[in-house]
Amino acid sequence: MRLSVLKETDAGETRVAIVPKSISKLKGIGFDVVVESGAGNAAAFLDSDYTDAGAAIASSAKEAMDGADVVVKINPPSEQDMTNLASGQIWISQLFHRLNPEQNKALADKGVSAFSLDAMPRISRAQSMDVLSSQSNLSGYKSVICGADHLGKIFPMLMTAAGTVTPAKVLIFGVGVAGLQAIATAKRLGAVVEATDVRPECKEQTESLGAKFITVEDDGVKTEGGYAKEVTSEYLAKQKEAVNKSLAQADLVITTALVQGAKAPVLISEDQINMMKNGSVIVDMAVAKGGNTALSKADEVVQHKGVKIVGVSNFPAQIPTNASELISRNIDTFLAHLVEDNAFTWDLEDEITHGTLITHSGGVRNQALLNKN
Hints:
Structural class: alpha/beta
Number of helices: 13
Number of domains: 2
Strand content: 15-25%
Number of strands: 21
Strand order of the largest sheet: 3-2-1-4-5-6-20-21
CATH topology of the largest domain: Rossmann fold
CATH class of the largest domain: Alpha Beta
Distance between the termini: 35 Å
Largest sheet: 8 strands, mixed
Shape: elongated
């Protein structure tokens, strides 16, 4: 089988789906690997690194895709990718399929079997294939570093001959993978950390890292696959009341809240931003899905009454070497799961295949999408 690795074309994207270290594993499960020239440059992986590992180099995306059995990318196919795709090929990338019905139909109409990496089920045997978790972990770390860069004070307490510097106060909305890493990073830097989440089970995880959990008493929250599925307006009102005191005292606020397949919830209103301290900073990690604050703008720093609102849509792209290494391991492990005896198994009853295979045999087959339609 021939597997092609494409260069990412989205603005600001610096990662690559497969790194040289994964080539030997892919060859071992039956793939000849072709990499588009320059695909790994921004992540510090040169064409020569790929050839040394046993891959071939194609001069263009079209050359890489011609004759490929499998095409791998991090982000959804571009218009040019859709033109280059041929019936019978297998496409693997993040597809954000619940938000892109036209893309799903176009892939199905092309006769392409498309797997969505961001649809990986949250089960124990799929953890090593979960790109959202691996990338969110890095994002949580980087969000704190980003906040520190924008903040006009240091994180740890510092006792000097000139006086004592008090530690920074950090408030984190959302205690998923990104939130937990943000808590751990802020604590390592010496901050006083508080966190809140709609899921009560996050309290123990938060406290295990030395942070305080802001509890909201309410049983109206439903979750699915590790994400909040439904949050009532009554809950959001209670959460707002519970966090306002901490919000007013915080030096840095990091928001991470996402709802799978939907716009990110607005957790911080303009009125709440108005009550924050002059010089405080908000880092909105959900800005690519609409943002967790009323004033966030993607890849911009908004100044509002002395508060900075920093919206970063792709934190992993800021640390592309590590991000690429992790996502490559996710993908090569996923491919090893799908392939047996040098061929795809197409076990449609398997929970991992069932959850990630969006289009197949000329149609959209993901049950959630069919139910939605």
